[in-house]
Each structure stands twice: as structure tokens, then as C-alpha cells.
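Why does residue order matter? Because the sequence determines the fold. Keep that principle in mind as you read this record.
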Amino acid sequence: MAGWIAGLKSGWPMLVAAPFVGSFLATVAFRLPRRESIVLGRSRCPACKTALGPVDLLPLFGWVLRRGHCNSCRAPIDPAYPSVEAAALGIALWAALAFLPGWHALIACVLGWTLLTLAAIDLRHFLLPDVLTLPLVPAGVLVALGVADWPVGPRDAAVGAAAGFAAIWGVAWLYRRLRGREGIGLGDAKLLA
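Structure:
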């Protein structure tokens, strides 16, 4: 019991930040596929275009307080927003309770949050943007190289990335040959790498 309390004590900054990170990730998941700015521009109701106020922007609580509807026009707010916020909190909670030493918890959160964003985009758009998948490959190798007690070494990480890409690419090639059409995108291969 004392172990999980220690994990929560050391991970409290991640736990506090996680819903806000999740709110940003939900915005990225909605705007990136539409080629909208993920940094500039205020958050607005998609229905009436009213700028969201401070209460509306509170992760998780804003959606609950507004009962899932815009305060101005009463249009429903997509439940994907609080879902991504809650999932980001869940990832941080897992990292805190997994007793990951030092920077491992933060690294696990950043990688987990990136995968969460990709899942949210893929679920809605059947798309895995290169801007999110490709940086994961060198990031994984750099983590393996830079973190002394990481469970996978840099050589194994690089070989795993190449093998993962090749496996999905091979399945896609075989499907295309057998069926005469695309069956799996290379975004999946890049993600597995």
C-alpha cells in the first residue's frame, strides 16, 4: 500500500497536468487532420462558433458542468473531448503507479499521450499522420540510447523498429498482390516501427 502512495506523491505533477494535456491532445486530434492550426486560434463551439469561456475549458469538469452541451447554443459537445482527457489522466496514473524510476514515468507519459492522440485521430479519420508517427521512431531509439537502465538497448530498438515496419509493409504488399487493392496503409507500418 505504501508503494502506490509513493507513486502518487512522486507523480502528482503529471497527474495534475494530464487532463490539460489531454485537452490539448483532443484539440490536436480534431484540428490536425483538417489542417487547422493546433496552436493559434481560440477554442470555439463547432456549432455556433462562440469562443469557449474559462469554465468550458476546464478539462473533464467543464464538460460535466455544461452537461455535455454548449453554454450558448446548447448543441452537444463531442464526448471525445472528455474521453481523451480522462485517457490522458489514466496514462499518467498508470505511469505513476507503475513505479517507473526517474524520468521513465515522464517518458512513458509522453509516448503514451502521443499514441493516445494517434488513436483518437485514427478512430475518427482512419489516418495516422506522419508528423506524429515518424518522430516516435527516433524518439524510441534515443530513449533506449540515453536512459541508462531502459529495458531495451538502442541496437534492439533500431532492429525492432525496422522489423516492425517490414512486417506491416510485407502484409500490405501481400494483400495488394492477392486482392488487387490497398488493404493497410503505411501509417500502420510507421506506427509499429
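The two ends are 37 Å apart (CA to CA).
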